[in-house]
Here is the input.
Amino acid sequence: MPATADECRQWVEAMHAALALEDEQAFAAALQGFNALQDSTVMTHVRKVTVDLQTALEQFRSDSRLIDLAERQVPDARARLAHVLKLTDEAAHHTMDLVDQCCPLVDTLSQEAARLQPLLQREPGASESLRAAVDAHLTQSAAHLKTVRTRLADVLLAQGYQDLSGQIIRSVMKLVDELEVALGDLVSIGRLGSDGDLERPVAAPGAQGPVVPGVEHGDTVGGQDDIDAMLSGLGM
Amino acid sequence: MSAQPGMSILVVDDFSTMRRIIKGLLGDLGFSNVTEADDGLTALPLLKAGNFDLLITDWNMPGMQGVELLRQVRADERLKKLPVLMLTAEAKRDQIVEAAQAGVNGYVIKPFTAATLKEKIDKIFGKPSAAA
Here is the structure.
């Protein structure tokens, strides 16, 4: 129990009376009594903090949610992210396989249209209307095939999303790694240091990965034109 | 030298999708002699052993990052004049200055276009570019 005002007053008055009587022994005894009151107050607080800490640790140990997070859900989150990375990698490669299969077909058709058109002009047996129709078809085919070829190159380039999203996913996986270690440490403290010897991953300095909207990246450029202007300013 | 169709190009990126994209675009530009590496650590021995005419490298890679590879290239007596094009998502101004100071010859930001890649290769090899 903390000291009450009455108890304090009692000892202060005793010191005052001892001073008035110039009784050193009585003053020392009163001072000791007063100090003992303070010590008991401190001890009461220490006991309360100890009990609170003990209760918190007990609750921490029984908090299965945190342990579940540290031991199962965080590693699961990392495995899920790794799986997303794998799926996007496979999807991008599959798309590029299909593009690779289409490009030679388009090239062959383009070359064939270009080869047939002059032959058609020299073909004496064909009727004029058929010749005009086939000629128009070959002209249109050549133009459309050229567009398809360009679009296929665009499809190839669009697969770059896998690299950009992959870099972002990897940076989140690194954070998950660090979170797992931190949670592991916390759980170990709760278990009074039974298994807390996990190593912290070391973050690679320098590279930041792609700019993510809503995430602070510092002073970044606005695009290729901005970079070109910067490098030009640097004498390149 | 000017950009020759048969010139030897090393493409360094940790994502196989991006290596394949760059290789495909280079193929469309007429460059078919392309070798791949997945980071600076695997690229450097290839560069030292081979006879490459151009290095195209990402920045953010495990092992050795692109800017460190660039420094190693510039520090190597035989490789120091090798043209290096950085092709990366790294967009901080400090990083672009860092790459320029390390001796990069061109810097292309991802996502990029085939025209930008062509323009920068043309510029490195002193050919006037239609896109410029």
